[in-house]
Every structure is written in C-alpha cells, then in structure tokens.
UniProtKB/TrEMBL annotation:
GO terms for biological process: endosomal transport. It comes from Nannospalax galili (Northern Israeli blind subterranean mole rat). This is Biogenesis of lysosome-related organelles complex 1 subunit 1. One of its GO terms (cellular component) is BLOC-1 complex. InterPro entries: BLOC1S1. It comes from the Eukaryota. The lineage of its organism: Eukaryota, Metazoa, Chordata, Craniata, Vertebrata.
Length: 106
C-alpha cells in the first residue's frame, strides 16, 4: 500500500511539475508577445521618423537652392539699380555741361 501511495504521489508531483512548466511557458510566451507588440510599434515609429527626416532633408536642400537663387536675383537687381543710378548721374552731368556750354555761348 505504501508503494502505491508513493507511486501516486510521484505521479502527482510529475503532473504538477508538467503543469508548472506549461504555465511558466504560457506566461513567458504571453510576456514575449506583449513586449514584441511594443517593440514592433517602436520600430514602426522609428521607420516613420526616418522617412520624415529624409523628407525634411530633401526640402531643406530645395529651400537652400531656392534661397541661393533668390539671393543672386536680388544681387543682380541691386547691380542693375546701381547701373541705372550711374547712367542717371552721367545724364545729369551731361545736362549740366550742356547748360554751361549753352550759357557760355549766349
């Protein structure tokens, strides 16, 4: 009888050990799945951020190019205005010289 009791207790211990292993495995799987969801979301967010950074970099390069072109346009416009002012000053001097010559001839 004691032999049967010992055998029964051994079987129960083995069954409990298997149930504990199964429970721990289920818990571990559930924890891993839970953390994997967070990791997957972080990965997706990182990919979105990388894409947005690349988009912003392209836009910055384009903006810098546009700004450079506009600066050159303004510089050219300023040079044209200086030339116009030089021509205006020359015309005023010629006009003054002609007035002096006309006065001297009279």
């Amino acid at each position: 009888m004691s032999c049967l009791l010992k055998e029964h207790q051994a079987k129960q211990n083995e069954r409990k050990r298997r149930e504990a292993i199964t429970a721990v495995t289920c818990l571990t799987d559930a924890l891993v799945d839970h953390f994997n969801v967070g990791v997957a979301q972080a990965y997706r967010n990182q990919r979105k951020l990388d894409h947005e950074v690349k988009t912003v970099q392209v836009q910055v390069v384009w903006f810098a190019k546009q700004t450079g072109q506009r600066i050159r346009m303004v510089e050219n416009f300023n040079q044209a205005l200086e030339k116009i002012q030089d021509v205006e000053n020359w015309a005023q001097r010629v006009d003054l010289d002609m007035l002096i010559v006309a006065t001297a001839l009279e």
